[in-house]
Amino acid sequence: MKRHLKDSWKSLRRNGWMSVAAVSAVTVTLLLVGIFMALLMNVSRISTQVENDVRVRVYVDRGTKKSQEAKLEKQIKALPNVKTVKYRSAKTELDTIVGSYGSQWKMFSGDKNPLNNVFLVDTKNPKATIKVAKQAQKLKHVSEASYGGSTAKKLFKTVDTIQRWGVGFTILLLFVAVFLISNTIRITILSRADEIGVMRLVGATNSYIRWPFLLEGAWTGLLGSLIPMLVVDIGYSLVYANAGLTTAANGYSLFPTMPFLFWLDVALAAIGIIIGALGSVVSMRRFLKI
Length: 290
Hints:
Number of strands: 4
Radius of gyration: 30 Å
Number of helices: 9
């Protein structure tokens, strides 16, 4: 293994510009992968936070007695997938409107209050809100059970689409990376076809011939991941610093820079090493069949 490591480093130095080309291919690809991974993970995080904010609002019929409301609360809590149930009186609802839109709404206080008492229902699974709302609507003394309607459905559909396409695009990028690296390293191997032929003639095994190239590809992937790690770390830190106040004001937040960037860097380095080594193995197959 020590000899293979030395040979892989010698090969990187000896091939010069070809090694630079291979590292550049990895760098460009991993830069796109790193940016997209950071974007996708944070979109998924914020989407989950938005999903968790979707609640079922169960409006109680006006004139319903306290004992009937207590019974209704128990019935709502007994529904499948219900996590918590919070009661808000019509007065509290009006106070919230007054605090948000101004004192002119105070004219509806007292007996003039047109609002209903409400049960705010949080579900165990955000996507269960639609089902819980439909079940709550059928209960006695319920005038309406809302969950955001088409807006909530559109949100859930958008989140699923982002996650599905994001994973697909990331996998596509990795396939492109393996293709670029394998073709770049193949040119390197072509220039050393005579050397590989001599090694085979003197009895070298396929694994013995393959190891230096596999390690060379791994080094190429690791070196190619350094610049993307630096760019993504600096870029994400700047975005996080500028976006922190805005997202916090809305109750949502990006991943903190640490340990998020540490694990993202580890992932980029690991991906670089794996696709570099895989690209080398793919390139070596035709030569080892001779």
